[in-house]
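Chapter review. Work through the record for NmrA-like domain-containing protein before attempting the end-of-chapter questions.
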Amino acid sequence: MKKKSSSSVSKKVIIVGATGNLGPHLVSAIDSEPRFQVSILCRDSSDCSKFPQHIPVHRVDNYDASDTNLVEILTGQDVIISAIATNAVLQQKAIINAAVKAGVKHFVPSEYGHDTRNERAAPLLPPCFFTHKKQIVEYLQSKEAEGLKWTPFVTGPFFETQAVLLKDYGDHHWSTTTLSTVALAVKNAISAPAEIVNKYLFVESFNVSQNKILSSVESLTEAKWDVRYHDAGEQRQLASEKLSRRDYSGLTTLMGYVTCVGGYGGDYMQYEESANVLLSLPRESLDSALKKMVK
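Structure tokens for NmrA-like domain-containing protein:
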């Protein structure tokens, strides 16, 4: 009888935060791969009833509430994929602690989005968007000696959440990734050899500009859009003032600013190596992706 190759050995994968924007895509991608046995970890207050019945759901009161319960749930798991909400990213510390105790081998943190290492962008936004995410990666680094591997993904903003907001940086390019491609990247990464662990992976579906997106949308809709140009610095100042008053309506403007203005990490492929080929990600059509959104 032939011995199974390591690539054919089944892995147990548990997904945290499966009910958010990215979570269902992760569940679908991992569940589609026969090598993986997927399960879900969610809070009692979350609605996990929409997932297929064959996928086990483990519930806890809070991710940071009962370490003993978490350890019991995570024992036997090979990989934890976290898509926990942005405002709860620090709760991953308790999950990481439980993962180490349970002998989990690999942790994918809820890092998806901007390059959170950028020191110019971090002060502009609440800590959960940059600082806390970076702290989680640093915490994972501190657990390497205990056998826990980690892989964070920099994806740019999810393409499906993009809005055409033109400022005076309409021609500046940035990276963005579709939700399905983010999920595929994660699935392929946890199947990949050792070179993908303990480092950031940078992926993208498109490298675009606001003007490029606008041109494509106008072509698809066969209509000229009414566009108003704003001074980027002025908009940033107004949004920052709102944030200082705990008015979070300016967050979208600030996220757009750090994405579209040079020097804030939005165009990260200028200084980092793309993992698209390593992760066997497909080439995507901007027009096709926009066509789905326009419909």
